[in-house]
Amino acid sequence: MPAENTTPPVTAFMLIKTMPEWLAMTPRERMNAFTTQVVPAIEGKTTGVRSRFYDTEFYSTRVTDVWVWEADDHDAYRLLIDALRETPFWDRYFKVVDLLVGTENGYARTYGLEAVTTITT
User: Fold this and answer.
1) Which residues are 99's β-sheet partners?
2) Beta bridge partners of 18
């Protein structure tokens, strides 16, 4: 049985840690660096990606932030990573500790089952 497509099919949890160069900047300098160096690269080289950003430094020392990306397909995700790697975000401002990439409820689509692990109370 073929897997059913979902929207979005690719979700990536990018576990990152701030680097000294980023922390040496003031908050205003950080926002300026992000909006002038990182965002234009993403917007200029990708389509079909969305993100959410979570601060975790008050709970974790290994990972200070989690950047969650949703991409329409694997090509959009690949272009996103290529774009980020060409900016100071990658290994200057942040260290990418790990990338966890998957598809939501993939097991259910593969076997034609109800996604019982998606729970709302």
Assistant:
1) 14
2) 94
pTM across the whole model? 0.86
21: helix, strand or coil: helix
pLDDT tens for 10-34 read 999 999 999 999 999 999 999 999 9
DSSP H stretches of helix in 8-117: 20-23, 27-33, 39-45, 74-85, 106-111
- Residue whose pair of structure tokens reads 């060409």 in the numeric block: 86
Give per-residue burial for 43-74: e unless 16+ CB within 10 Å, then b.
Answer: eeebeebeeeeeeeeeeeeebbbbbebbbbee
Residue 13 vs residues 26, 62, 100, 112, 113: alpha-carbon distances, Å: 26, 15, 5, 25, 25
Q: What is the token pair recorded at 38?
A: 């990182």
Nearest to 12 by CA among 66, 53, 85, 68: 68
DSSP code, position 119:
-
Residue 107: the pLDDT is 86
